[in-house]
Each structure stands twice: as C-alpha cells, then as structure tokens.
Protein 1
Amino acid sequence: MSRNENQPGQPGLWDDPEPSEPATDRPRRRRTFTSVASDTRPTARPEVARLWTVDDVSTFLGVPKATIYGWRTAGKGPKGFRVGKHLRWHPRTVFEWSLRLEDEQ
C-alpha cells in the first residue's frame, strides 16, 4: 500500500488530522504561570510571608552567605530553623534581630 492510499475511515500517518472544532477568528489565550516563590501572588492569609533562604537573609543584611553560616554556628545571628535539610528564617525574625542590633549600639 502506498503512502497516500488509506483504508476508508482511517487517516494515514502523513495526513493532517481532522479539526474537531471549527476555527474561530479570535486568538487563543496563552496560559501564564508564576513561580511558587513569587511574592506578588495572592495569599489566603496576607500576614504569612514566605520563609527566607540563606540567600534572602544574606541579601537583606548585605553580608556574605559564609557570614550567615558562621553566625549560626556561633549562635550570634538571627534565629533560623531547619525544614528538612534546608535552613529557613521568618522574615520578621530577621527584621527584629536587626532592630535589636541597632538598639544595642
């Protein structure tokens, strides 16, 4: 059987499938996806912010990540906690810690 000879009612491998819906003039909308970590997405409880990573704490305080790890080892930095094997901080804890530093000086 040649490439263009099909049995009745069966499309060939190279044939375009029949459209299931008639084409319309309006363009199709594309779905957009946002990152799970996005701070702009609406939340059910606005007072709950996402947890910070060591990169976030480092950026906020303007110090290297190694400094954050050193403070944690010495028990001096903002109090963080583990989520599984990952270190996390509540933003409020880091803010309050930095304000206490300012008050102590």
Protein 2
Amino acid sequence: MAVNRTIPWAGAERRLEQRSWHGPERRRGDVGSAAAPAATSMLPRAGAVIAAAVVAGVVFAAMEMVLVAVVQGKPFWAPLHMIAAIGLGREGVLPPPAALDTGVAAVAVGVHLVLSLLYAAVLGAVLVNLRRSSAWWIGLLFGIALYYVNFYGFTAQFPWFAEARGWIGFVSHAVFGLLLGTVYRGIDKRER
C-alpha cells in the first residue's frame, strides 16, 4: 500500500498505513507492534569478553614483569608471586624466591585470568551501550580506576600490593584498560 503524502491523514487509516510500511523498521519488527520495546540494553558478547581479557591480560602481565625486572631490578617473576598470593596467601609465596616456582606461576596465571575476565565483563557491559569510538578512552579511564581500586582499595585485604604502588602499576593498568576497551569493541561491533 503506497502512502499518498498529499493527504493529511491523522486518523486510524494513517496509523494503519504507517504500520504496514516495508522499510528497515518493519524488517526489524519495530513497527506495527503495540508493545515494541524501546531501546533495550544489550549484554556483552562472551567471545569479545574472553578475547579482550586474554589480550589485555597477557600484555599487562608482560609489561609488569619486564618493567619490574628492568627498572626495579627485581626478579622477572615477582609480579606473578604477588598475584598468586591472592589465592595462596602471603606465606611461602612472598617475597619471591631466587628461582621461578612453576606452581606459583600457574596459580598466578589462573587468578590473573579470572580477574581479567571479570573486569572485561564489567567494561563490556558499560561499552555495549556506548559508541565504539569512545571505547579507547573509557577503557583507559577504567584501567586507571582499576589501579586505584587494586592498589589503594584492596590493600586492606592484600597489603603486599601497597609496596607495588607507582608508575609501573599505573601505566600497566592504564594500558590494560585501553586494550580491554579497544579489543572488546573491535570484536563486538553492535551499535545502540
């Protein structure tokens, strides 16, 4: 049914004609249904969350390990021991020994991956309803906020993180958030 735009209909006939329109809204199912939902919030995509968590988590861990070794002269695996102590407790894990303990490293990787997935899911839930172009700076701010939460908020429970405060942790967390947001929105391209 064609719409004659010269007739100023305002009654039921015009509403019926509008409902039977065959444009993109009709194909999506938005027109013609009395209970068409308004903008619905979308959940983050699991694949994008996992990919972003793995990429950002690996880069974060590598940055921390290299910078701690090169700048501070501590063992390369020192950050792994600090992370593993979250799950294993401080005794026997800190300070890091002279040699890498593979069991402690495995626990650290597991704890770090779980935290990265949790953080990616939170950031993904925020980003899914925003423009893709804002993902990088929202991720950057998210990473900076994580630094303060981890190194100032959680130190009541995990006091050994207080000694790791500084620019290395700050920059690593900022890069983590930046990558988390960018990779997530690079994969999940849905726009609201």
Protein 3
Amino acid sequence: MKVALIGATGRIGTRITVELLKRGHAVTAIVRNPEKAPDEPNLRSAKGDVTDSDRTAALVRGHDAVISSAPFIPGISAKVLETVRKSGVKRYIAVGGAGSLKAADGKLVMDNPQIPAEWLPSIKEGAELLKLLKADSQLDWTFFSPAVNIGPGERTGKFRLGLDEVVADPGGKSSISYDDYAIALVDELEQGKHIRRRFTIGY
C-alpha cells in the first residue's frame, strides 16, 4: 500500500513509519525538514506543512491512504482535513488524543481537574478533530485515541482495543507503548475495522 504520513518525525510518527516499512508499505513522509529523514528503502521524504494545504495536498494525491500524526496545535485540525479533502484520498487515519475518551467515572478524560492547564489547548484540539470528523461525509476516516499514558516501552504486540471508553488494567492504569500503538494503527490501515469511527488501545 502507498501511504502518505503527515508528521512522520514526531515520537509516534517515527514508530508508525518503522512499522509501515517493516510490513512492506511504501511511505511518503511529509515533513518540514526532509533532509533529516532517514534513507530507507520504500521511504520517500517530501517537504510539506499542513498550513500550506495546496502544496501538501499535491504531495498526498495519488496515495492509497493518508495518516496524520501532527501535533495538536490550536486550529490545525481544520487545516489537516482541508488538505486531505483536497488531495482526493479517501482513507484517512488520525493519531488522535485520549482527552475525549470516557473515564471509568463516566466523565471525559480532559475534564479531570488534575490535568495541567497548559495541556488543555492541545487536548481540546484533539477533541475538535474528532468532532470535525464525525460531521464529515467525504472521508473514510478513523480516529485512533491512544491510552491515557503513552510513551517508550516494549513492542509486545499484546494489547486490548476499545471504542469510546478508556482501556485500563485492573488497577485503573491506562497505558501503551509507542511501538504497540503503531502496530495497532497499521493493523487498522490493513484491515479497516474502524472506518468512520474512533477506537482506542491499552494493556
């Protein structure tokens, strides 16, 4: 499969790129600094930025799918979707946020008063992207929320999936490694089990 990846150099984007290449997919990494991208078979790097939707849409055009793992800067979600729609590519997978998931108490994760205030603009932008996707009638989209805690860790291939509620262990901890998140995302790309909906992951 030929995949365009927007935001390929971030922590999650890097793992997604590795997983895609491991499975034999051809990847176009759309990044601000392509000269910093690794030289790998089946990997092409191209300079692009979603704030320039015309240029980036031209880079995405002709691919089988587009994945975005761009940071949730306030206002970016509408730009990303504008870019994808202009490209004509129907299959779109978003690296989403966990803030719009329901916690065990029934409240949204982002409504937890313990969340630092400086995190909220980014968290709310992730929720905004999900809202925009739910109103979309053009794309075959998937919004993949990580566990509440995502970070470095083992590539185990063993995890659980959920839909709109946090996936947590018996002790209430919701976590996933970058590598296992990438495995599940590429599984979704290949199998298409959550088209036009959100899903999540955890151990």
Protein 4
Amino acid sequence: MSAPHRLLDTLDSGVPPESSSLVMSEADALALGRRIVAFASNDQTTAVVTHSVSGVTRIANGQVLSGDDGESLQISVDVQIGKRPGVRLLTNQRDDASLRALVTTAEAMVRQQAGNESDPEATLIGPQTYDPVHLWYQASMDAIDTARHEVVPRIITAVRAAGLEGAGFVGGLARTRAVVRKSGLAVACRETDFECTVTARAVDGTSSGWAGRAARDWACLDPDDVARRAIAMSRLAANPVAIEPGRRTAILGPAAVAQLVRAMAYAYDSTETAMGGTPFSDQNAPSQSKVGQRVFDSRLRIVSDAADPAGGFVPFYPDQGGAGIPLRPVTWVDGGVLRMLAYPVGLAVFKGTRHSGIPLAVRLEAMPNVATGRLESMIAGCREGIYVNRFSGLTTMDRKVGLMSGVTRDGCFLVKDGKIEKSVKNFRFRESPFHAFNRIESIGMPERASLGYVKTAPYDMISFQAYSWPLEPIIVPPLVIRDFNFATLSDAV
C-alpha cells in the first residue's frame, strides 16, 4: 500500500499532526471535535470523529486476489433539544463552512421533531473518567505499509511448496476515535489490530486445513506459523472417511468456540429477553429473565473488560446516544450463573440500572482454581470423540432456545484413546450452545480467536462497527463437550 494522502494535512486544528503515523492523533481528533461543537447553540450536541487506515491483502488459488486498502474520515453530529428525538448527520468534510452548515441543519431538523421519546440525562453529561487501555502498537501501524507485503509472498510460497492451494488474508487496521460533547465530555482512543488466516487445500479438493491468528500487536501475529499450521492441518485431513453421525463427544478448537460465543451474544439483550425471545428469558421470574440463575457449567465465567491485555477494546461507547459514556468491566456469567443483561444507555437511565452494550468483545474462561490444559492434553484425555477445527455457515434456527446449525470445516478428526486416529468427513451439527455449555467435560487455556475477514461496506462505520472487520476480540478456550449433536454428514471440505 502506498502511503495514503493524510487527511490531517488539511485540518485547521492548530495541532501539528504526528509525523510518525498515518492516523490522526488523539489530540487532532479532539481538536476537530471541539471545533464542531463550538458551532452548536445548545449543550445537547455531540461530535464523533473516526479516522482509520486499513490494509488487507486477500489470497485465493495461491495468488493475490485483491488489496482492500483505504483511509476513511467519518464525522457524525448528534443534536438533541430538550426531550425531542435527536437528529444525526454525517460528513467527511472538515472545513469550517461545511461543519457549521452540518450543525445548523441538524439543529433546524431537531426543532421540527415532536414527541417525548428521549431522556436528556443520557446526553447532558460532563467530563468522565475512563479505565486505562493499551490498544495502540506503532509496529502494527508500520506493518500496514511494509511487513504485510513481505509476509504475503512467503505464505503463498510455503503453501505452494507443500503442493497445496492457498487462500486467506493478512490485514491490519489503525483507527482513532474521539467523542466531544458540548457539555464538556471529551475523550479519544487510538487502536491497532491485525489478523491473518490461511486455508491450505489439496489440489484435488479432498482435504483442507485452516489456521488463523489475531492480535493488536503485529509482533505477536507470526503469519509464517499460521501458514505452517494450516499446511499441517491439511495434510492431517487427507483421505477422510465417513463415520456415522450422532451425539458424540466434541473437542472444539478455539475458533469453533468463538464462533458459537459470538452467535450467542444476542441472548444478553435485555429487551428481547424480557419479551421471551432468548434462552435467558424466564417469564416466571420477577425480572422476566434468568439473571441470578445458573445457565452454564459452574466452572465457566464470561466477562467484558476494556483493559483486558488480550481482548481489550475502546473504553467508551463510540455510537449514537451513549457516545463517550464510559464502558466499565462487566461480569456476564460467574460460576455459570447469569449476572447481567445488556441495557442501552437510555433504557438503563429509565430503569435506574447499569448500562452495557451487547457483549461482542468477551473473555470466556474457567473460574479461578479450575484446572485447565492445552488442547493437546485435552485430546490426550479423550477416549473417543470428534475434534472440530472450526465451523462455517453458522445460523441460528430458533432464537428462543438458541438452536444453531453449521458445518464442520477445514479439519475434522476422529479421536480415539487420546490420539487423532483419522480424518473424517464433515458433519452438519444441530445444537444449542446454551445447552451444550452445560455438558462440558473439560476447559482449556483461553486465547484470542481469529474469526476471519468479510468485506463489508456499511454506510456508517460508527454504528455498524460491530459487523465490520476487524471484529471485536473474543478470548475463548478449547472445550470438550459431551453429547454434541453431529446431526448429518456434509459434503463440505
């Protein structure tokens, strides 16, 4: 990726841009936000500035398929007057005339609104304190421009040398987010993230292996090791045989567990749960939920913490309504007991309860003093089961019970007497992880899982960040689950 044009070069913030980074500094982003809210006539005005640089190289059929590189500056202005519903306008223009016109237009639109739907307590807040986080690595910023292009040819060469066809991607992102409110709140955070996945597939299409790794620090990624593991998995997966489907012990690798955990996030939504629409609903309980009840194996804990060394995230809401409000650590499940549901800021203010977003960035781990082991030891301790590297085509069939379906992919093996005996043809599973997480036999050591790259083009990176690459970090262990429902055979490789 050639060095992109720097948006900072045209900003009139009065703050010198950082020469060491292509991404706006926190000071630059805050200065731009303050310049925007200075044009507002009321205190219920919020400016959100998001500046990002990304570089993604995609591989298919053993060659570079495309390079999805880009730079984006997104500015949103939210204006609310009294308890009228707010108005939000977006732009990527940063000159004074454009910004003044945007604020003026938003204020005029709000004055035409009617109703009493919003609570100003959610927006009339002053300066806040935030948990310290470490999400920025200069080496990752530099790798977007340099190391990425050195690594991709090595991956392609390694897969070809093994007599296999390669696919995958190497991608990095550097981003600055800032929220400034007319009422005095001002916060900014910079972050980097990197991910690499490799699929090594037999030329005749009979076997496939996948490996991936994600990390905020490029130095922790090791793409060459990702390629080696994918190649080894593909070789191990050669000559698969069909075995009878049914309920079997499943050894789920971290990628497979992470896919299930992310798909389960909707169940923590307090509104949908109160309406009886999630596995955490309980119409006989005072709260209409299972908060306070055991929902998973008593050895499990699920938390979200912006300061998590491996799974940290921006410590404030970057989106409309709650923008800039601090995100505090949340314990969702402790000892298998459901402790909290997700309440958006407005609803939390109305109900007088604690707010939190849907848990897309989580750490699932064993409780303290619970014995854990590496994946190899979990396989060694299994008398008979199926090892699943990851899933594809994961869908939720029944949201009330959390019934899901998907196909095992890129490495599925029969384990007997503590050893991988042979590669087996893939299965389509039909299972509720909300039930399966009560049938856990052993828990491994947690790690950040790679979830892969899906190119999306949302109109607004602020609201839709949850659905765009890179996904929020998910830290999970491998799990051994008994009676997992491998329902039918699948032709997938």
